[in-house]
Amino acid sequence: MTATNPEDKTKQTGKMEPGAQPSLEQLVQRQGGRRPKRRWWWLAIALLVLVGGSLPFVLAGEKNSGPHYSSQSVERGTLVVKVSATGNLQPTNQVEVGSELSGIVEQVFVDVNDRVESGQEIARLDRSKLKDAVTRAQANLVAAQAQVMQTEATADEARATLNRYRTVAQLSGGKVPSANEMEIAEATLKRAEATVQSAKASVLQARAELQSDETDLAKASIRSPINGVVLTREVDPGQTVAASLQAPVLFTLAEDLSKMELQVDVDEADVGQVREGQPATFTVDAWPGRTYQAQITRVGYGSQEEDGVISYLTILAVSNDDLSLRPGMTGTAEITTLVRENALLVPNAALRFTPTVTQQAEQKSSGNVMSMLMPRPPRQATQNHSSVPNGAPRVWVLQEGQPVAIAVQTGASNGHLTEITGGELTAQMAVITEEVSGSAP
Q1: Residue 39: is its pLDDT beyond 80?
Q2: Residue 417 pLDDT level (bands cut at 50, 70, 90)
Q3: Residue 313, Cα to own-chain centre: how many angstroms?
Q4: How does pLDDT run across 53-72, given as a tens digit for each residue?
Q5: How far apart are CA 292 and CA 286, in angstroms?
Q6: What is the residue extent of each domain of the chain?
Q7: Domain 83-92+254-340: assigned CATH number
Q8: DSSP secondary structure string, 194-255?
């Protein structure tokens, strides 16, 4: 008989003899069995179910991932272009009253808000020294006039002496007086006449000094130069006024507060649109909700700079019959620079809009392992049909769901709407203003 190996017998029958030692292969088969194969089948089934359930959502995401657009209809209407500027209200004629003389304030006759008339005395300096100066000048004038009279008498005496010498010389046939005596008499008369002229000049000088002192005396009484209202008062009785290089300001007067002016600073970017005679409206913080009418009377050519900003002073005439406006109030003006009737208007957002090719479907699916494993339907790319040269004004409209550019010619703009002066755009056409990603509203 042929001997049989226990290991071969075990391989054939799959069973071990009692007392036999199991091999390594038998241990592996005993540990694994058929359970691992069954586990992989269950995992595959679960994966298929998960993929089948998520497929509708993936396809829906691919369908709704394209761009959508907001649009607005083109309308005809009135285009009003305005320029904004801020400034302060001032009287049409404001005068600062000061003193040319130094001295002590003796009296003040008016206060703030008092009405004054032209020539009315509103303050007075101490005049004692000025009165003394006037008296002294008057005395000097009298003395000079007396000196004129004395010199004229001397001149008359010298003239009489010369005439007597001439008469004697004529009667004596030229023998007497001598030629020397005649020359001396003529010279004496000339000196006397010159002295008279000098004395008369002294009179004029004395009179001028008197007038100057009288003027100073009059200036000690400070008077209003206009009919108006006292805005400010900067002086009190007993205060010393020192007028050295410039006259100190004692009062500020406004001539007529029923007519005022709004002084605004127009930016250099807007000054080219502003013209004399244009209407304007303005508001002040003191009267919220109330609008005042104004009109431009002057646009300054001279520039002014503040913090690196260039502006131009513009004056607006304002009626203030009810005296509700006061000097110094801050006014915010809206100057109407252009009114265009029956204009074809589009929103500025439509002129700024430019469509873009979006890749939202890919962005949403990037990083998703499941979507990488699943096949996707072909995506329809956004096509931006445009035959308009780059940089030319254009608007975009939808045709068959796709944005198409239309060339336009633009006119004036108020910052929100722009006038269309040429092109194929017509009223009631819907222009795209913005692109909205995601599902359609």
Answers
A1: no
A2: very high
A3: 9
A4: 555 554 455 445 567 888 88
A5: 12
A6: 83-92+254-340, 96-124+222-253, 127-219
A7: 2.40.30.170
A8: HHHHHHHHHHHHHHHHHHHHHHHHHHTEEE-SSSEEEEEE---TT-EE--SSSPPEEEEEES
